[in-house]
Amino acid sequence: MVWREETTREELASTPLTRLAESLGAVPEAWLNVVEQPLPETLRVTPGRPDEAWTVAQIESIGGQRMSWMSLHQAFTMPFPRGHAEGDARALLSYLHQSGRITRQEAASMLPVEVLPMDGVDVVVDLCAAPGSKTTQLAETHPAATVIANEPVSGRVNTLVSNRGRVSLDNVLVVQHDGRHFPRVPAPGVDAVIADLPCTGSATMRKNREVWWAWRPSAGRELHHLQVGIARRAASLVRPGGHVVVSTCSLDPVENEAVVAEILRVCPWMEAVAIPDERLQGLQLREGLTSWNLLDDDGSLMEKDTVDACYAPPAEEDLQRALRLTRRLHPEDNNTGGFYVALLRHCPEATPEGVARTLVPKRPGQTPYLRDLPGPSRHDVHGVEASVSGPLIEHHRLSADLAWWRRGKRLAVSPQSMHDRLWAPETPDGRGGRFPGGSFHPLRAIHVGLPVFAENRGMWRVRQEGIPVLERHGAPASISVEPSLVDRLLSGDALDVDDLPDGVERGSVLLHVDHATGPTTVPVWVQAKVTLMLDDVERRMLALRLFDRSLTEEEE
User: Fold this and answer.
1) How many of the other CB atoms lie within 10 Å of CB of 17?
2) Range 478-547: architecture per CATH
3) Which strands make up the sheet holding 450-456, listed edge to edge?
4) What does the alpha-carbon distance between residue 176 and residue 192 come to, in Å, rounded to a whole number?
5) H helices within 269-414, ranges in order?
6) Which whole-number Å values give the CA distances from 172 to 143, 176, 319, 470, in the listed order?
7) How far apart are CA 245 and CA 233, in angstroms?
8) Which residues, other chains included, contact 353 with Cβ-Cβ below 8 Å and sequence gap of 6+?
9) Peptide bond between residue 188 and the one before it cis (omega within 30 degrees of 0)
C-alpha cells in the first residue's frame, strides 16, 4: 500500500491505529505530533574492529549523538530522518553499513538484546531471526557464545546469512525451522532464547507508513495463537535458570500482555522477572498493562461478552503482578518507534530433572535406543582433521579454543561451545530414542560458523570476511609493506611480484600497513601478478580511511 502524501491530520486521527493509542492513554493531538513524523536514523557500531575508533569519529563528524541507554554497543542517533541522509553523509553511512563497520537498526528493536541476561550463557537462540539485526547485535556483544539464528522462510534465510557475513561473525549457527516446532538440542537445553514474535507492526507507523491504513485490531487477534505457539516453544527449550525474552513491535495488548499471560498459564515452570533498570538508563519505559479494551476494526470498543477470554486482561492477581514487570516503549516518550518486551525465567525448582522441559522424558523408564542419522548429502558439515587446521592455526597464531568445520571447499571456524554443546553430544528425541553425537541433527543447520578459508589450487586462501575473525582470534600472518604500495593496489594498479618484499610465496598473502586510524590487513593473491582480493565496498572504505579519498570520486 502506498503512503498518501496528502493525508490530513483529521484522517490520521480517525484511523483504528489512533483509536488504539487513545485506548492506551495517549492524547491524540500530542501523540500525532510525534508519530506522524519519520524516525531519526539510528545505528550501532560493530565492536572490536581495529578501526572502531575511526568509525566512531566518522559518525560523530556527521552529527551522530550517542544513545545513553545502550550499554552493550556504541549506538548513535543521527540528526536526520531514517533513510534521508544526503550527499557525503549518505554515501558514508551506506559504505560503513555495507562494509560491516556499522549496522543501521531502529533503536527500539535493540531492546531485547539489551535486557537479556547473558551471565553463564553458552548457547542462545534467536527464534525469529531474519533479517538478523538482533542476531548480529547479540553475537557481536557475546563472541564466545553460540547464537542459533532460526528463520523458517527460505528467502529470509538468505538475508540473515548475508548480514552474518557482512559483520564477519563466526559464532552464529543458521538453522531453518518453524519456531513452534523448533527441535530439541542436547541436554541441558539452551541457556537463553529471544522470541521476537511476528506481529502486526502497529508500533512501526513511523517507518512503515502503510501501517496507518493497513492495521486492523482483528489482525492482532488472528496472530495471537501463532505468537503463543512460538513463545511456548521458547519456554520449553530453555534450561532451568535460563531466560526468555518475548518481544514485539506492536502496541496492541492482545499481541503483548495477553500473550505473556497465556504463556505463564500454560508454562507454569516459567516466571516473569524484573527487567534491570540500570541497563536502560535514560530510556523512558512504561509498566506493562493489566487492563485494556479490545477494539472492532472500525476502532470502536467491543462488548466484553463478545471477547474470547484469551484476548482479555487476566483476572488472576499473580498474572497481573507478572505483567507489571514487563515493559512498553511508546513512540512519543523517547522519539523512537514502539516496542514491547518481557523477561521470563525458567524456575530451577520447577524442573528437578535439571533440563529444558522439552528434554524431560514423557514416559520415564523406556529402554533407550540409538537412532540412525539421515543419509549423507552435499550440504553436510564435517569436522576438520588436525592435519588441515593445525598448520593454519600455527601460521596465523589462532586460538586453540576454536572449532573447525568443512563444507565443500571452505573451512569455517566457530566457538568451541558450538561443537561441545550442539554437535558432539547425543540428542534425545523425546520418545526414548537418541540421535548419535557428531551431527547437528535434528537441527537443520544451513550455515555453521563463518567460512574463513577457501581452497584455491590446492592452497587455502583467506576470504575477505574472514580477516576480522583472524584479527579477533589470533595474529594474521602478514607482510609489512609501505602505504604507497597499498595505495597503488586500491587505485587499481597492476603490481608485479617484484614490487613485494623478497621471499613472498605464491598464493594467498596478507599485507600489513600501520596507520594512525588502526592497523590494516589487505588480502592479495600472488601468482604472475599481485591481485587485490577485496570487493569494491571495502576497497573504497580503505581508500577513504588510509588516504582520505572520496567514496564517490570515481562516480562523479
Assistant:
1) 25
2) Roll (2.30)
3) 382-383, 402-407, 410-415, 450-456, 459-462
4) 18
5) 317-324, 331-334, 386-395
6) 9, 13, 35, 16
7) 12
8) 359, 360
9) yes
Q: Is 143 exposed, middle or buried (0-12, 13-18, 19+ CB in 10 A)?
A: middle
Instruction: Say if residues 532 and 524 touch (Cβ distance below 8 Å).
Output: yes
Residues of the chain with CATH 2.30.130: 478-547
Q: What cell numbers appear for 298 in the block?
A: 472500525
The whole-model pTM stands at: 0.95
Asked if the 108-359 domain carries CATH number 3.40.50.150, the reply is yes
Amino acid making up residue 372: D
CATH 3.40.50.150 domain span(s) along the chain: 108-359
| DSSP H helix total and E strand total for the chain | 18, 27
Dig out the grid coordinates for 241 from the structure. Answer: 535458570
| 114/280 Cα distance (integer angstroms) | 8
Q: Length of the chain, please?
A: 556
Report the DSSP pairing between strands 327-329 and 339-346.
antiparallel
DSSP for 247-273?
EES---GGGTHHHHHHHHHH-TTEEE-
Angle among Cα 152, 155, 160 to the nearest 5 degrees reads: 75
Could you give the angle at which helices 317-324 and 257-266 cross, rounded to 10 degrees?
130
DSSP letter assigned to residue 495: E
- End-to-end CA distance of the chain, in Å? 35
User: What confidence tens digit (pLDDT) does each residue in 314-343 have?
Assistant: 999 999 999 999 999 999 999 999 999 999
Cell digits for 115?
535486557
Tell me which amino acid residue 12 is: L
Give the containing element (helix H, strand E) for 286: strand 286-287
Q: Tell me the pLDDT tens digit for each residue of 438-495.
A: 999 999 999 999 999 999 888 899 999 999 999 999 999 999 999 999 999 999 998 9
- Looking at 105-145, which runs of residues are DSSP E strands? 123-126
Q: Which residues contact 116 (CB under 8 A, 6 or more apart)?
A: 124, 138, 192, 194, 243, 245, 343
The helix or strand, by DSSP H or E, that contains position 239, with its residue range, turns out to be strand 238-248
Distance CA 248, CA 196 (A): 6
Q: Which residue has the cell 533513510?
A: 83
Q: Which residues contact 498 (CB under 8 A, 6 or more apart)?
A: none
